[in-house]
């Protein structure tokens, strides 16, 4: 999940603002509309033309499409708005996300040919990072589960089928995330190296180190006075 939130954050979506926006409505905007925080509709010229002489809130266009590509080309700072009416029956637009982040990575989506920041394409890049992070943790967990007591370092790696399976898994991940149109079809995107599962590496290392420590204590803790294995060995040896 760290990889997921880290990628979202780099594309302008603070993790603290991601809750409860899965089913938020949006208002259509004109092509070329640019976000303007001081504008009544934040730069949405299509919505601004609708609000003229209105005494009630206009109906939203639809729900933001995070799963497919229906709203991929919209800047959500301009379209993901909510409406309220003041005491004078004047519609007032405000942001659903109260505090947008900064665009830390200038990346272009291969589908929209537009910047990824502040669009639903950020979700595709985030779920790609999450997917690759899971694969990385699976590989480290595989090495952790190779032995019950021996260290993976001393046990070695001469299993041909194991090497084949890891190679196949890595190649499949690369194909699914980088080869167009497969990546678009599966909802993946061409993440940069720093987003390509890298945030998951510390946790994968912790998994392996903790398991190596468990095996070390199992091998070295002495038996009790009755000749039984140490209580830790009995509890931790699967």
List keywords for this structure.
single chain; 238 residues; two-stranded antiparallel sheet; mainly alpha; 9 helices
List the helices and strands and how they pair.
Elements: H1 2-10, E1 25-26, H2 45-51, E2 62-63, H3 76-79, E3 81-85, E4 91-95, H4 121-144, H5 152-155, H6 160-178, H7 182-185, H8 201-220, H9 231-236
Antiparallel strand pairs: 1-2, 3-4
Helix pairs in contact: 1-4, 4-6, 4-8
Notes on the protein architecture:
- The protein has 238 residues and is mainly alpha-helical.
- It folds into two domains: 22-95, no CATH class; 121-236.
- The protein is built from nine helices and four strands; from the N terminus they run αβαβαββαααααα.
- The chain has helices at 2-10, 45-51, 76-79, 121-144, 152-155, 160-178, 182-185, 201-220, 231-236; strands spanning 25-26, 62-63, 81-85, 91-95.
- The protein has a two-stranded antiparallel sheet with strand order 1-2.
- Strand 3 and strand 4 (91-95) form a beta hairpin.
- Helix 1 packs antiparallel against helix 4, helix 4 runs antiparallel to helix 6 (160-178) and helix 4 (121-144) runs parallel beside helix 8.
- The protein is elongated, with a radius of gyration of 25 Å.
- The relative contact order is 0.14.
